[in-house]
Specification:
Layout lengths: L1 H37 L7 H26 L7 H16 L6 H25 L4 H19 L9 H8 L1 E2 L2 E2 H19 L1 H11 L1 H6 L5 H26 L11 H11 L11 H20 L4 H32 L25 H9 L1
Antiparallel strand pairs: 1-2
Helix pairs in contact: 1-12, 2-7, 2-8, 2-10, 2-11, 2-12, 3-4, 3-5, 3-10, 4-5, 4-10, 6-10, 7-8, 8-10, 11-12, 11-13
Length: 365
């Protein structure tokens, strides 16, 4: 019974944070629309809406994978480099031939999964800090790309370019794929044993171990899935460019993905959060980028505003968590404080001294 109550409270806490993020998304959309309207424009034109969804798809792929590793109290700084490598592998393998699309996609995702497996093994077996392990892997990939390729390479067939260029109404195909993978990730985290183990390992790896969970397996699985999502992002970039591009890693996608995850309410120390909030964080950042481009704002001002918004969001989440923790510590049973529970009971009177005859009998003994 106690365990069921605890699980229910955790689910309510996650839902509350996610609801707060989506409320923030609505506020950002309203304020952005008013700001653009004040400048004589319209935020929700077809072109702006398509631009917003197009921006969200690429960042969404990376942020979904980053959410999984952060939930396990880890981090992956190699996703931008994996995406750059994936564009080259896809374009070179396809070589402009439609019959090689399946081979190119398989090779790209297979190599990305292998990179994630190496990251996970280095972190779990060699006990290397995730920051250092994934940054080192990213630098290895960067060195290989800079040495092996001097510019764009390969060719993506026009049939595959539809993945990045075609749309249904104002919704790009890539955004629909991103949302479908987001739903799959939500179900994976909530309905599968591995997903629940990721939450457990992120909350407390030692407690998870004592509960019969092998902490290494969820962490490795999270890194493999994260790298595969970066591989899908690379496929999207290759379909948009029509060729492989080694300079993708210069765009700072890994830091932007972490910002979207944090903005979506996922706790950087693991164990709390989810993909649903991350999707809202992605759309918040995409909305801001669309507004900045519509208003032709200075790039420096854009970075300052985005950074300030992320810091403010983290501060709000942290304040809420500290407040809940203080209530739990002060009133661990979950009840009302003593002042609200009624007057305290009077202290019991001290025991009366023994009668004289009993004292005399004890003295005779």
């Amino acid at each position: 019974m106690t365990r069921a109550v605890s699980v229910s409270k955790n689910l309510r806490a996650r839902t509350g944070t996610t609801g707060l993020v989506y409320l923030a998304l609505v506020v950002v959309l309203v304020l952005s629309a008013l700001l653009v309207a004040f400048q004589g424009g319209d935020l929700f034109t077809a072109a702006n809406t398509v631009d917003l969804f197009t921006r969200s798809s690429l960042l969404g792929f990376l942020a979904i994978g980053q959410t999984l590793v952060i939930l396990c109290r880890s981090l992956d700084l190699s996703v931008g480099y994996v995406a750059a490598l994936s564009t080259m592998v896809a374009a070179i393998t396809m070589a402009g031939d439609p019959s090689r699309i399946v081979l190119g996609v398989g090779a790209t995702l297979g190599l990305a999964a292998l990179i994630g497996l190496v990251n996970g093994l280095v972190i779990t077996r060699l006990r290397v800090n995730p920051f250092i392990a994934t940054l080192g892997m990213g630098l290895v990939i960067k060195g290989y790309l800079d040495t092996r390729f001097q510019g764009p390479a390969g060719s993506v067939p026009s049939e595959f370019q539809m993945f990045g260029l075609s749309r249904v109404g104002v919704l790009p195909i890539s955004t629909l794929v991103m949302l479908a993978l987001a739903v799959a990730a939500i179900l994976f985290l909530r309905r599968t044993r591995m997903g629940l183990h990721m939450y457990a390992v992120g909350g407390d790896a030692e407690v998870a171990r004592l509960s019969g969970i092998r902490p290494e397996l969820p962490l490795i699985a999270a890194h493999v899935l994260c790298s595969m999502m970066a591989g899908i992002a690379g496929l999207l970039l290759a379909s948009r460019f029509g060729t492989g591009n080694t300079l993708v890693y210069n765009n700072g996608y890994e830091l932007e993905a972490i910002a979207a995850v944090v903005l979506g309410g996922t706790y950087l120390l693991g164990g709390r959060g989810g993909v649903a909030g991350t999707v809202a964080g992605v759309f918040i950042l995409a909305t801001l980028d669309t507004v900045f481009n519509t208003l032709s704002m200075d790039p420096f001002v854009k970075d300052v505003l985005r950074g300030a918004i992320v810091i403010a969001a983290v501060a709000v989440y942290a304040r809420g968590r500290h407040a809940r923790a203080a209530v739990r510590l002060r009133f661990p049973s979950g009840g009302a404080p003593p002042s609200a529970a009624g007057p305290p009971e009077p202290p019991s009177p001290p025991p009366s001294p023994p009668a004289p005859e009993h004292a005399a009998r004890r003295g005779e003994r």
